[in-house]
Write a structure and sequence with these properties.
By secondary structure, the chain is of the alpha+beta class. The chain folds into two domains: 26-50 and 279-407 and 424-463, Metalloenzyme, LuxS/M16 peptidase-like (Cytochrome Bc1 Complex, Chain A, domain 1, 2-Layer Sandwich), CATH 3.30.830; 57-261, Metalloenzyme, LuxS/M16 peptidase-like (Cytochrome Bc1 Complex, Chain A, domain 1). The chain has helices spanning 15-21, 38-44, 100-107, 117-126, 151-163, 169-185, 190-203, 216-221, 224-234, 250-261, 310-322, 328-335, 364-384, 388-402, 409-421, 428-437, 441-451, and strands at 57-60, 67-72, 78-85, 130-135, 140-147, 240-246, 284-288, 294-301, 343-350, 353-362, 458-463. The strands form two sheets. It has a six-stranded mixed sheet with strand order 1-2-6-3-5-4, sandwiched between helices. Strand 1 (57-60) and strand 2 (67-72) form a beta hairpin. The protein is globular and about 60 Å long.
Length: 465
């Protein structure tokens, strides 16, 4: 099979967001769509005819030869940095240490270098510096946002966090207690219970099936030596990816890379995570619980980000469930029948298990009807595919809305890192909309026929049956 490079997006956050985010399956986010009609934007947007024009440069640092993608923008005195350590996510936590990646991420801003936990946070707050770390399924990383004026201090704080974290007994115990409390609270929300059950249903004993927060006993037993081994082995220049956007030129970027990341170990050691083996046999796990809403989440085989089928499936999914109120599923289940507040589908692009995921919620008395319509529409889409009009609207929206990603300098840095992770090339920003334009109806309908097999799924549901 021939392959072509494309682009995909992920999210990150700090400990507060971590507790919420990591209860989510697939790293892509288990969220409920707010009502939104994307066609209004696409039909009237001046962005329809525009493509991204700014050039991306590859920078190589002078001393350590650290590479990064840089998009220089002098319009505002702001710098955003996104960095990823590939393969260092929580799926790679060793036996007896499940949760160590999350614990380390939470502790990196709890005191480092010359600053204790309180002083570190005060420096960030007083200088309006945003610094976050998080462990996702596959990768470990973080982001930095600072003004140009405060960049030297921001870089100093980032370097200290990565190379001189305190991991003090007091701070470590406090964060451990926070994580222990979060583990206890997981059972309070049906969405959390469902996400954990769904991960177990899909992955079994594969690392993707773990509780993203880790195991209580493992977290409790992690000591300072284990945390420092984690940092040395899994955060190295060997698996580092950096994206930089904003008020910084190539020479400044080179110095920054050497000064901040150049002191990391040249090579590390991450634990191997095998591809997930999932039986898409139509099985469904039911969790009986008195709830106001029954919630179901379903998964089908998907494609990797650089697979030749990615864009046809990306467009097909947008038509079926990814376009908010205008999607087929939303029109049939929400708008026409009023059976749900939200129904959606999306592509989950974890390294070891790409999936097509769909979900909706409904009151117990309406759930059976909503599910019947969902399955009927899913089968119809597989059999008949999309119409030419649906394809045009989908492509218009996906092209017009893409430039909105560049409103935020942080989004740009994140895209630059993703471009490297997925080998998209320096000119991806200019080519992305062409990838969408080139998708034709035959490709979309072939993707619908191959990937929207209603019976080739795995699902879990929680509610009052």
């Amino acid at each position: 099979m021939t392959r072509r490079s494309h682009y995909k997006k992920k999210k990150m956050g700090a400990l507060g967001a971590l507790v919420v985010f990591l209860l989510v399956l697939a790293g892509a986010g288990y969220y409920w769509l707010r009502p939104f009609d994307p066609s209004v934007l696409a039909e009237s947007s001046v962005l329809q005819a525009k493509d991204f024009e700014a050039d991306v440069r590859e920078v190589v640092s002078p001393r350590k030869s650290i590479k990064a993608y840089l998009l220089e923008d002098r319009h505002n005195p702001i710098i955003s940095v996104r960095f990823i350590f590939e393969g260092a996510g929580y799926a790679g936590d060793g036996d007896g240490e499940e949760g160590i990646a999350n614990l380390a991420a939470a502790l990196l801003s709890e005191g480092a270098g010359d600053w204790d936990a309180q002083a570190f946070k005060e420096e960030l707050e007083n200088l309006a510096i945003g610094l976050n770390f998080a462990a996702e399924k596959d990768d470990f990383g973080g982001s930095l946002l600072t003004t140009k004026e405060n960049a030297p201090k921001a870089f100093e704080l980032l370097k200290a966090a990565l190379t001189q974290p305190h991991f003090s007994a007091e701070d470590t115990e406090r964060v451990k207690q926070q994580l222990a409390e979060a583990l206890k609270r997981q059972s309070e929300q049906p969405e959390n219970v469902l996400a954990l059950a769904f991960a177990e249903e899909l992955y079994g004993k594969h690392p993707y099936g773990r509780n993203p927060l880790g195991k209580a006993n493992d977290i409790a037993s992690v000591d300072e030596a284990a945390l420092r081994r984690f940092m040395h082995n899994r955060l190295s220049r060997q698996n580092l990816i950096v994206g930089i956007a904003g008020d910084m030129d190539a020479e400044e970027a080179g110095r920054f890379l050497d000064d901040v990341f150049g002191v990391l170990p040249a090579n590390g050691r991450t634990n191997f995570v095998r591809d997930a083996e999932i039986s898409f046999d139509g099985g469904e796990r039911q969790i009986v619980r008195k709830t106001g809403q029954n919630i179901i989440i379903m998964a089908w085989p998907g494609v990797a980000r650089n697979d030749e089928d990615f864009y046809p499936l990306f467009v097909a999914n947008h038509i079926m469930g990814g376009s908010g109120l205008n999607s087929r599923l939303s029109q049939k289940i929400r708008e026409e029948k009023g059976l749900t507040y939200g129904v959606y589908s999306y592509l989950s692009l974890n390294d070891k298990s790409p999936l097509l995921i769909a979900s909706f919620s409904s009151t117990p008395e309406k759930y059976a009807q909503a599910k019947e319509i969902f399955m009927r529409e899913w089968r119809k889409f597989q059999k008949e595919g999309a119409t030419a009009e649906e394809l045009k609207k989908a492509k218009d929206y996906l092209i017009a809305s893409y430039n909105l990603r560049f409103v935020s300098i942080s989004n740009i840095a994140e895209i630059l890192a993703a471009m490297q992770k997925y080998n998209l090339g320096l000119d991806f920003l200019q080519k992305r909309n062409d990838y969408v334009r080139q998708v034709d109806l035959q490709q979309v309908n072939r993707a619908a026929a191959e990937y929207f097999d209603a019976d080739k799924r795995r699902s879990a549901v929680i509610g009052d049956f």
